[in-house]
Amino acid sequence: VQLVESGGGLVQPGGSLRLSCTASGRTFSTSAMAWFRQSPGKEREFVAAIAWSGGSTKYATSVKGRFTISRDGAENTVDLQMNSLKPDDTAIYYCAARLLGITSSQAANYNYWGQGTQVTVSS
């Protein structure tokens, strides 16, 4: 599975961005997908995950109510809609795939990773 993220950029506090991750490979439809992020000097942290069926999602407390994860099986994409962005959301955002199709907030449980896309929230 290869994962390619897009949609990062610079946005003002309170603004919105939509990240997209395009997956190649036949296992996308049965894989759980997730977004993680990492800012300088910090550990990689969980943001959101969605099960293989799309029927179950999980969010970090810090983003719940502001971010929404979704997936499109026909397009092999998983998106992260980010609203009400804060400077603390500034990080490199990574897409990840887990062959076991249930969600997890643990990075070690994901088998494939993208290269990341930078999100900067600043005025």
Reported for the largest beta sheet, the result is: 7 strands, mixed
State mean pLDDT (0 to 100 scale): 95
Strand content: over 45%
Give the helices and strands as they follow along the chain: EEEEEEEEEEE
Morphology:
globular
Rg over CA atoms, rounded to whole Å, is 13 Å
Helical content stands at under 10%
Separation, N- and C-terminal Cα atoms:
37 Å
Total number of β-strand segments? Answer: 11
Low-confidence stretches: none
Number of helices: 0
Structural class category: mainly beta
How would you sum up this structure in a few lines?
The protein has 123 residues and is mainly β. It has strands spanning 2-6, 9-11, 17-24, 32-38, 45-50, 57-59, 67-72, 77-82, 91-98, 112-113, 117-121.
Task: Present the secondary structure layout.
Layout: E1 2-6, E2 9-11, E3 17-24, E4 32-38, E5 45-50, E6 57-59, E7 67-72, E8 77-82, E9 91-98, E10 112-113, E11 117-121
Parallel strand pairs: 2-11
Antiparallel strand pairs: 1-3, 3-8, 4-5, 4-9, 5-6, 7-8, 9-10, 9-11
